[in-house]
Protein backbone atom coordinates (compact mmCIF):
# COMPACT_ATOMS: atom_id res chain seq x y z
CA UNK A 1 0.00 0.00 0.00
CA UNK A 2 2.75 2.38 0.99
CA UNK A 3 4.56 1.82 -2.25
CA UNK A 4 1.47 2.59 -4.32
CA UNK A 5 0.83 5.76 -2.37
CA UNK A 6 4.37 6.97 -2.76
CA UNK A 7 4.21 6.23 -6.43
CA UNK A 8 0.94 7.98 -7.20
CA UNK A 9 1.73 11.05 -5.11
CA UNK A 10 5.00 11.55 -6.98
CA UNK A 11 3.11 11.33 -10.24
CA UNK A 12 0.62 14.11 -9.60
CA UNK A 13 0.88 17.05 -11.97
CA UNK A 14 3.46 19.51 -10.75
CA UNK A 15 1.84 22.62 -9.37
CA UNK A 16 4.27 25.45 -9.83
CA UNK A 17 4.27 29.16 -9.25
CA UNK A 18 5.03 29.75 -12.92
CA UNK A 19 2.43 32.05 -14.44
CA UNK A 20 1.48 31.02 -17.97
CA UNK A 21 0.38 34.01 -20.03
CA UNK A 22 -1.84 33.83 -23.13
CA UNK A 23 -3.22 30.41 -22.19
CA UNK A 24 -5.75 30.67 -25.03
CA UNK A 25 -3.13 31.23 -27.73
CA UNK A 26 -3.35 28.45 -30.31
CA UNK A 27 0.09 26.83 -30.64
CA UNK A 28 -0.92 23.90 -32.85
CA UNK A 29 -3.39 25.26 -35.44
CA UNK A 30 -4.31 21.82 -36.90
CA UNK A 31 -5.53 20.49 -33.59
CA UNK A 32 -6.33 23.84 -31.94
CA UNK A 33 -4.10 23.01 -28.99
CA UNK A 34 -3.40 26.08 -26.91
CA UNK A 35 -0.45 27.27 -24.88
CA UNK A 36 -2.48 26.52 -21.75
CA UNK A 37 -3.00 22.93 -22.83
CA UNK A 38 0.68 22.56 -23.66
CA UNK A 39 1.60 23.94 -20.22
CA UNK A 40 -0.85 21.55 -18.56
CA UNK A 41 0.71 18.69 -20.51
CA UNK A 42 4.19 19.58 -19.29
CA UNK A 43 3.04 20.11 -15.70
CA UNK A 44 1.50 16.64 -15.82
CA UNK A 45 4.49 14.85 -17.33
CA UNK A 46 7.13 16.77 -15.36
CA UNK A 47 7.60 13.91 -12.84
CA UNK A 48 8.21 11.34 -15.58
CA UNK A 49 10.11 13.69 -17.89
CA UNK A 50 12.61 15.31 -15.52
CA UNK A 51 14.42 12.03 -14.79
CA UNK A 52 15.54 12.23 -18.46
CA UNK A 53 15.73 15.92 -19.32
CA UNK A 54 16.74 17.10 -15.86
CA UNK A 55 20.34 18.17 -15.25
CA UNK A 56 21.28 17.69 -18.90
CA UNK A 57 22.56 20.54 -21.06
CA UNK A 58 19.64 21.23 -23.36
CA UNK A 59 18.43 22.94 -26.48
CA UNK A 60 14.90 24.09 -27.03
CA UNK A 61 12.73 24.60 -30.05
CA UNK A 62 10.84 27.79 -29.29
CA UNK A 63 7.82 28.93 -31.28
CA UNK A 64 6.45 31.88 -29.28
CA UNK A 65 3.69 32.58 -31.83
CA UNK A 66 2.83 28.94 -32.39
CA UNK A 67 4.31 26.20 -34.51
CA UNK A 68 3.02 27.63 -37.80
CA UNK A 69 5.02 30.84 -37.27
CA UNK A 70 8.70 31.40 -36.71
CA UNK A 71 10.46 28.74 -34.60
CA UNK A 72 14.08 28.69 -33.53
CA UNK A 73 16.56 26.35 -31.88
CA UNK A 74 18.07 27.85 -28.74
CA UNK A 75 20.92 26.64 -26.56
CA UNK A 76 22.21 29.76 -24.84
CA UNK A 77 20.54 32.61 -23.02
CA UNK A 78 21.63 35.82 -21.37
CA UNK A 79 19.27 35.39 -18.45
CA UNK A 80 15.81 36.12 -19.84
CA UNK A 81 14.49 32.82 -18.51
CA UNK A 82 15.18 33.78 -14.90
CA UNK A 83 16.70 31.66 -12.18
CA UNK A 84 14.79 28.40 -12.55
CA UNK A 85 16.38 27.79 -15.93
CA UNK A 86 19.90 27.16 -14.81
CA UNK A 87 23.22 27.60 -16.53
CA UNK A 88 26.34 25.48 -16.66
CA UNK A 89 29.61 26.60 -18.25
CA UNK A 90 30.91 24.17 -20.84
CA UNK A 91 34.21 24.51 -22.70
CA UNK A 92 33.92 24.93 -26.45
CA UNK A 93 36.49 23.45 -28.84
CA UNK A 94 38.73 26.52 -28.55
CA UNK A 95 38.71 26.24 -24.76
CA UNK A 96 36.56 29.20 -23.82
CA UNK A 97 33.44 28.47 -21.80
CA UNK A 98 29.89 29.06 -22.95
CA UNK A 99 26.90 28.94 -20.61
CA UNK A 100 24.50 26.12 -21.48
CA UNK A 101 21.00 25.79 -20.13
CA UNK A 102 19.46 23.06 -18.04
CA UNK A 103 16.45 22.55 -15.83
CA UNK A 104 16.09 20.36 -12.79
CA UNK A 105 12.64 21.30 -11.50
CA UNK A 106 9.05 21.57 -12.78
CA UNK A 107 9.40 25.36 -12.37
CA UNK A 108 12.31 25.38 -14.79
CA UNK A 109 10.43 23.22 -17.27
CA UNK A 110 7.28 25.37 -17.09
CA UNK A 111 9.26 28.58 -17.36
CA UNK A 112 10.55 27.38 -20.71
CA UNK A 113 6.98 26.64 -21.82
CA UNK A 114 5.93 30.10 -20.71
CA UNK A 115 8.72 31.42 -22.97
CA UNK A 116 7.26 29.62 -25.98
CA UNK A 117 9.21 26.36 -25.90
CA UNK A 118 7.58 23.38 -27.57
CA UNK A 119 10.48 20.90 -27.81
CA UNK A 120 13.18 19.89 -25.33
CA UNK A 121 16.41 18.28 -26.56
CA UNK A 122 19.23 17.07 -24.37
CA UNK A 123 22.92 16.17 -24.53
CA UNK A 124 23.90 12.56 -24.05
CA UNK A 125 25.58 13.54 -20.80
CA UNK A 126 24.67 15.17 -17.52
CA UNK A 127 25.97 18.38 -16.06
CA UNK A 128 27.93 16.51 -13.36
CA UNK A 129 30.33 15.38 -16.08
CA UNK A 130 29.60 16.57 -19.59
CA UNK A 131 32.65 14.75 -20.97
CA UNK A 132 31.21 11.29 -20.24
CA UNK A 133 28.24 9.96 -22.21
CA UNK A 134 25.42 8.32 -20.28
CA UNK A 135 23.54 7.14 -23.36
CA UNK A 136 24.00 6.07 -26.93
CA UNK A 137 21.24 6.89 -29.35
CA UNK A 138 20.78 5.41 -32.78
CA UNK A 139 18.52 7.87 -34.54
CA UNK A 140 16.89 5.97 -37.40
CA UNK A 141 15.85 8.43 -40.09
CA UNK A 142 13.79 6.98 -42.95
CA UNK A 143 14.04 8.51 -46.39
CA UNK A 144 10.86 10.13 -47.70
CA UNK A 145 8.36 7.54 -48.81
CA UNK A 146 9.54 4.69 -46.59
CA UNK A 147 6.75 3.48 -44.39
CA UNK A 148 6.98 2.86 -40.68
CA UNK A 149 7.17 -0.90 -41.24
CA UNK A 150 10.75 -0.35 -42.47
CA UNK A 151 11.66 1.78 -39.49
CA UNK A 152 10.25 -0.76 -37.12
CA UNK A 153 12.19 -3.67 -38.55
CA UNK A 154 15.32 -1.49 -38.61
CA UNK A 155 14.83 -0.76 -34.93
CA UNK A 156 14.58 -4.48 -34.17
CA UNK A 157 17.75 -5.10 -36.20
CA UNK A 158 19.57 -2.55 -34.06
CA UNK A 159 18.19 -4.06 -30.91
CA UNK A 160 19.52 -7.47 -31.92
CA UNK A 161 22.93 -6.24 -33.02
CA UNK A 162 23.44 -4.22 -29.86
CA UNK A 163 22.19 -7.11 -27.76
CA UNK A 164 24.72 -9.40 -29.41
CA UNK A 165 27.54 -7.15 -28.22
CA UNK A 166 26.13 -6.88 -24.74
CA UNK A 167 24.04 -3.71 -24.82
CA UNK A 168 20.43 -3.62 -23.76
CA UNK A 169 18.40 -1.01 -25.63
CA UNK A 170 15.07 0.78 -25.31
CA UNK A 171 12.98 2.19 -28.16
CA UNK A 172 11.49 5.67 -28.24
CA UNK A 173 8.98 6.94 -30.78
CA UNK A 174 10.20 10.40 -31.73
CA UNK A 175 6.78 11.81 -32.50
CA UNK A 176 8.22 12.64 -35.93
CA UNK A 177 9.20 10.15 -38.61
CA UNK A 178 11.47 7.71 -36.87
CA UNK A 179 12.56 5.86 -33.80
CA UNK A 180 15.48 6.31 -31.44
CA UNK A 181 17.11 3.10 -30.20
CA UNK A 182 18.72 4.07 -26.91
CA UNK A 183 21.41 2.27 -24.94
CA UNK A 184 21.91 3.75 -21.47
CA UNK A 185 25.54 3.82 -20.31
CA UNK A 186 27.25 4.16 -16.99
CA UNK A 187 29.03 7.48 -17.65
CA UNK A 188 32.60 6.30 -18.20
CA UNK A 189 33.47 6.60 -21.88
CA UNK A 190 34.69 9.87 -23.37
CA UNK A 191 33.00 11.42 -26.40
CA UNK A 192 35.76 10.48 -28.80
CA UNK A 193 35.25 6.79 -28.07
CA UNK A 194 31.47 7.03 -27.99
CA UNK A 195 31.31 8.72 -31.38
CA UNK A 196 33.81 6.30 -32.84
CA UNK A 197 31.80 3.34 -31.57
CA UNK A 198 28.53 4.71 -32.97
CA UNK A 199 30.11 5.57 -36.30
CA UNK A 200 31.71 2.17 -36.75
CA UNK A 201 28.56 0.32 -35.75
CA UNK A 202 26.45 2.40 -38.17
CA UNK A 203 28.94 1.74 -40.97
CA UNK A 204 29.03 -1.97 -40.24
CA UNK A 205 25.24 -2.19 -40.36
CA UNK A 206 25.10 -0.20 -43.61
CA UNK A 207 27.76 -2.42 -45.19
CA UNK A 208 26.04 -5.61 -44.11
CA UNK A 209 22.63 -4.49 -45.36
CA UNK A 210 23.10 -1.71 -47.94
CA UNK A 211 19.62 -2.20 -49.38
CA UNK A 212 18.04 -0.95 -46.18
CA UNK A 213 20.63 1.22 -44.41
CA UNK A 214 23.09 3.99 -45.05
CA UNK A 215 25.45 5.82 -42.75
CA UNK A 216 26.43 8.28 -45.48
CA UNK A 217 25.83 11.94 -44.79
CA UNK A 218 24.99 13.15 -48.34
CA UNK A 219 21.21 13.07 -48.75
CA UNK A 220 21.52 11.68 -52.28
CA UNK A 221 22.88 8.42 -50.87
CA UNK A 222 19.87 7.91 -48.64
CA UNK A 223 17.40 7.08 -51.42
CA UNK A 224 14.89 4.52 -50.22
CA UNK A 225 17.01 3.73 -47.17
CA UNK A 226 17.15 4.42 -43.49
CA UNK A 227 19.89 6.82 -42.51
CA UNK A 228 21.55 5.76 -39.27
CA UNK A 229 22.20 9.15 -37.73
CA UNK A 230 25.16 8.22 -35.54
CA UNK A 231 26.07 11.91 -35.15
CA UNK A 232 23.69 12.20 -32.21
CA UNK A 233 26.56 10.58 -30.31
CA UNK A 234 29.07 13.36 -30.37
CA UNK A 235 29.95 15.97 -27.82
CA UNK A 236 27.43 18.79 -27.94
CA UNK A 237 24.86 16.95 -30.08
CA UNK A 238 21.36 16.63 -28.73
CA UNK A 239 18.42 14.29 -29.12
CA UNK A 240 14.80 14.95 -28.36
CA UNK A 241 14.02 13.95 -24.78
CA UNK A 242 11.36 11.47 -23.66
CA UNK A 243 7.94 13.13 -23.35
CA UNK A 244 8.97 16.25 -25.23
CA UNK A 245 6.20 17.58 -27.43
CA UNK A 246 7.12 18.07 -31.08
CA UNK A 247 6.50 21.23 -33.09
CA UNK A 248 4.78 19.15 -35.75
CA UNK A 249 1.33 18.61 -37.15
CA UNK A 250 -1.09 17.35 -34.49
CA UNK A 251 1.10 17.96 -31.41
CA UNK A 252 2.77 14.54 -31.19
CA UNK A 253 5.15 13.72 -28.33
CA UNK A 254 8.31 11.64 -28.05
CA UNK A 255 7.32 8.51 -26.15
CA UNK A 256 9.16 5.58 -24.60
CA UNK A 257 7.66 2.23 -25.59
CA UNK A 258 8.59 -1.38 -24.91
CA UNK A 259 10.02 -3.68 -27.56
CA UNK A 260 6.90 -5.79 -27.18
CA UNK A 261 4.71 -2.77 -28.00
CA UNK A 262 6.92 -1.88 -30.95
CA UNK A 263 5.76 -5.02 -32.71
CA UNK A 264 2.30 -3.52 -33.11
CA UNK A 265 2.91 0.23 -33.29
CA UNK A 266 2.01 1.70 -36.64
CA UNK A 267 3.46 5.21 -36.46
CA UNK A 268 6.06 7.26 -34.55
CA UNK A 269 3.44 9.91 -33.74
CA UNK A 270 1.34 7.52 -31.68
CA UNK A 271 1.04 9.76 -28.59
CA UNK A 272 0.07 13.43 -28.42
CA UNK A 273 -0.33 16.40 -26.15
CA UNK A 274 -3.55 15.49 -24.36
CA UNK A 275 -2.45 11.90 -23.68
CA UNK A 276 -0.69 12.84 -20.45
CA UNK A 277 -2.89 10.69 -18.20
CA UNK A 278 -2.17 7.64 -20.30
CA UNK A 279 1.54 8.42 -20.50
CA UNK A 280 1.82 8.74 -16.72
CA UNK A 281 -0.05 5.52 -16.14
CA UNK A 282 2.14 3.76 -18.68
CA UNK A 283 5.34 5.06 -17.11
CA UNK A 284 4.38 3.51 -13.78
CA UNK A 285 3.49 0.17 -15.37
CA UNK A 286 5.62 -2.86 -14.81
CA UNK A 287 6.54 -3.09 -18.47
CA UNK A 288 7.84 0.47 -18.72
CA UNK A 289 9.12 1.27 -15.23
CA UNK A 290 12.58 -0.03 -16.09
CA UNK A 291 12.66 1.73 -19.45
CA UNK A 292 15.96 3.43 -20.21
CA UNK A 293 17.80 1.95 -17.25
CA UNK A 294 20.67 -0.53 -17.48
CA UNK A 295 24.09 -0.67 -15.86
CA UNK A 296 26.33 -1.18 -18.85
CA UNK A 297 29.44 0.24 -20.42
CA UNK A 298 30.56 0.78 -23.99
CA UNK A 299 31.75 -2.59 -25.35
CA UNK A 300 34.79 -3.04 -27.56
CA UNK A 301 33.95 -3.11 -31.23
P1 LIG B 1 12.44 12.21 -36.58
O1 LIG B 1 11.93 10.92 -36.05
O2 LIG B 1 11.41 12.92 -37.39
O3 LIG B 1 13.75 12.07 -37.30
P2 LIG B 1 14.10 13.44 -34.63
O4 LIG B 1 13.88 14.10 -33.33
O5 LIG B 1 14.94 12.22 -34.60
O6 LIG B 1 12.69 13.13 -35.27
P3 LIG B 1 16.05 14.52 -36.47
O7 LIG B 1 15.82 15.49 -37.58
O8 LIG B 1 16.45 13.16 -36.84
O9 LIG B 1 14.69 14.52 -35.60
O10 LIG B 1 17.10 15.16 -35.51
C1 LIG B 1 17.78 14.44 -34.58
C2 LIG B 1 18.18 15.40 -33.49
O11 LIG B 1 19.04 16.42 -33.99
C3 LIG B 1 17.01 16.15 -32.89
O12 LIG B 1 16.36 15.36 -31.92
C4 LIG B 1 17.69 17.38 -32.32
O13 LIG B 1 18.12 17.18 -30.99
C5 LIG B 1 18.86 17.60 -33.24
N1 LIG B 1 18.56 18.71 -34.12
C6 LIG B 1 17.59 18.76 -35.04
N2 LIG B 1 17.54 19.98 -35.63
C7 LIG B 1 18.54 20.70 -35.09
C8 LIG B 1 19.01 22.05 -35.27
N3 LIG B 1 18.44 22.90 -36.14
N4 LIG B 1 20.05 22.43 -34.53
C9 LIG B 1 20.63 21.60 -33.64
N5 LIG B 1 20.22 20.32 -33.42
C10 LIG B 1 19.20 19.88 -34.12
MN1 LIG C 1 15.52 11.19 -36.33
MN1 LIG D 1 18.53 12.61 -37.47
From TrEMBL:
Chain segments annotated as coiled-coil in the UniProt record: none
Protein name: DNA ligase (ATP)
UniProt source species: Novosphingobium anseongense
Gene (UniProt): ligD
Residues of the full protein shown: 327 to 627 of 627
Amino acid sequence: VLETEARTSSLRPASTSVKISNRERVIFPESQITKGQLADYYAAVAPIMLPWLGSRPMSMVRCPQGRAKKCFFQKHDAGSFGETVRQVGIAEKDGHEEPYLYVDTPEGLLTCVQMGTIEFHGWGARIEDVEKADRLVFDLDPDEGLDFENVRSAAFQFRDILKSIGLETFPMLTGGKGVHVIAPLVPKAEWHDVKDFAHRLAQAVAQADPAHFTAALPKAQRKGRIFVDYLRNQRGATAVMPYSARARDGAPVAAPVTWKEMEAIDKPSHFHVGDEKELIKRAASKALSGWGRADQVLPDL
